[in-house]
Amino acid sequence: MQPSLARSRAETAETAGTAVSAGNFPSSSHPRWRRLDPMPALGVLATIGLWYVASWLIGRYMPPPHEVFANAARNLFASDHFVGLGLPEGGYLPHLLYTSMTVVLGVSIGIGLGCLFGLLSARWSVVDQITEPIVATFGTVPILVAAPFFLIWFGLVASAQLILVAFYTTVVIHIYSLQAVRNVHPKYVEYARTLGADSGTIFLRVVLPGAVPEIAGGVRVAFAASWGLAAIAELLGSRYGVGYAILTFESVYDLASIMTIILLLGLIALIMDWLIGRVRARITRWAESAAT
Amino acid sequence: MRGHGKGIVVRDVWCVFEHVSGRKVEALREVSLEIPPGQFICIVGRSGHGKSTFLRALGGLNPLTRGEVFVDGVPVLGPSAERGMVFQDETVFPWMGVRTNVEFGLRAQGMSAAERARIARDWLRRVDLLDFAESWPRELSGGMRRRVALATVFAGGAPILLMDEPFGALDYVTRLSLHRLLLDLWRNTGRTIVFVTHDIEEALILADRILVIMEGRVIDDLPVTLPRPRDEEVRARPEAVGMVKTIMHHLGLDSLAAEGPEHAPELLASR
């Protein structure tokens, strides 16, 4: 779950490579459908096939795909069944919305704080020296181990999950942004200085833009991990969200609903990841080799 | 300030670096020379012998262990807009469009947007990139990116331009056309240019004067009096050939060319 330096280096190498290599014009434009790769579709079909096999082997503890899809269609926006279990009106929707809000809000707060601390650390080594041990500790301890403490400390204000996600993202983005700034080639800074730029200008117009692609990579990592983090933190104690719904379904052995809500959350995560990819491509279009 | 070169005086400059191992490396040793305003000077030498260190010392990018560098009598204490630098790579900011790149120095100096745009346009026209003003650097070829870099440093108005093998990674034909462009810009602006290269032919095409640096010392200082343009005919003249031979000799490369084949096995064995 933790970002490795190797990954961030690879990211930089990738963007730097596209930036420097000459004549990276996008190839002649084919119609979109022609570029569609049949392989992912094959993967989805294979997964569903394996799922059927597993369902047939395991029996009633592994509901088959069609049961899960039917469940999703039936209970997405309204469900008497869920109301009967003591859950709020509105089917799956309020749980998914609650967890999504936790993730989006938590990650957003974390991006802000992470960038702030990371960039301050990059600028002033004093800040780096102070924050290093904190980041080193929380960057290596799996964050879920700390989750119970967050629930105990902040559980009463119903925002423990939010704080957990924000905290985790802060640590991730701190690491990524600090590394990103350090990976900006020092020649760019020297070049800017010989053009008469002061250190403020260099930071805003050279270091920061140069670091953006790698920071965007960190945002993607933080988002990807935060869906599971929020849901599991809700499992440990919450009265809202996907985790809470799962606990409720578990108490009545409603396995189809558990699988359905997990799949729906995964779908939202996928859509968010795609959106972030689009935004990232837009911001770093100077580095991207071809339109995606 | 714009339009005229400034003179450089280098007095007994030493640059000593300490390796992590504690070993000291004397990258520059007792370098003293004067560069008059408007001169085009090339520095040749083998790699790792102090060419780039010397250029960075002029740029104020390296601390000097001893000695001083003066520009128009004022000691150099750090980098400034008065001494523009062009590197081999990283010559443009990839996250800025071409025009924004060219405007960077002007903007850093606090010039108004309209004035910036006017000057950038002028320089983009001079390097024949007006049609690419709104392109990203990645959309340009290597040679075009070097032209953006030239436009940027010339537009920045620095009276002294320091170039560290700026055309090193380019193909032969592109290099020749950039030589012509650079000489044009130099002639029309009168800037002082210090140009580091490992290519003796490039030095012969460009320079008023060639410095040979070996093991951190300036071991020769050759005025180039050949007429310009220095096309192949001019470069084939006896004085040009003699100069190439002299430089080859300084660089320890003469044995192959001058001495007979009977020396070749000896040379290979000594390596």
Features:
heterodimer, A: 292 residues, mainly alpha, MetI-like fold, 13 helices, elongated, disordered N terminus, B: 271 residues, alpha/beta, 10 strands, 23% strand, disordered C terminus
Descriptive report:
The complex is a heterodimer of chains A (292) and B (271). Chain A has 292 residues and is mainly α. Chain A has a single domain, classed as Orthogonal Bundle (MetI-like fold). Chain A has 13 helices and no strands. Chain B has 271 residues and is an alpha/beta fold. In chain B, helix 4 packs parallel to helix 5. The longest helix of chain B is centred in the middle third of the chain and has 18 residues. The C terminus of chain B is likely disordered. Classes of the chains: A mainly alpha (292), B alpha/beta (271).
Secondary-structure arrangement, i.e. CATH architecture of chain A = Orthogonal Bundle
The CATH superfamily of chain A turns out to be: MetI-like
Strand order of the largest sheet of chain B: 6-7-8-3-9-10
Give the oligomeric state: heterodimer
Helix content of chain B: 25-40%
Quick one: biggest sheet of chain B? 6 strands, mixed
* Total helical elements of chain A: 13
Biggest sheet of chain A: strands, sense, closure? none
Strand runs of chain A, count: 0
Measured between the Cα atoms of the first and last residue of chain A, the distance is: 26 Å
Identify low-pLDDT runs of chain B: 259-271
Overall pLDDT level of chain A: 82
Termini separation of chain B comes to 50 Å
Largest interface between protein chains, with number of residues from each side: A-B, 30 and 35 residues
Structural class determined from secondary elements of chain A: mainly alpha
Write down the domain tally of chain A. 1
Radius of gyration of chain A: 23 Å
Q: Using DSSP, what is the number of strands of chain B? A: 10
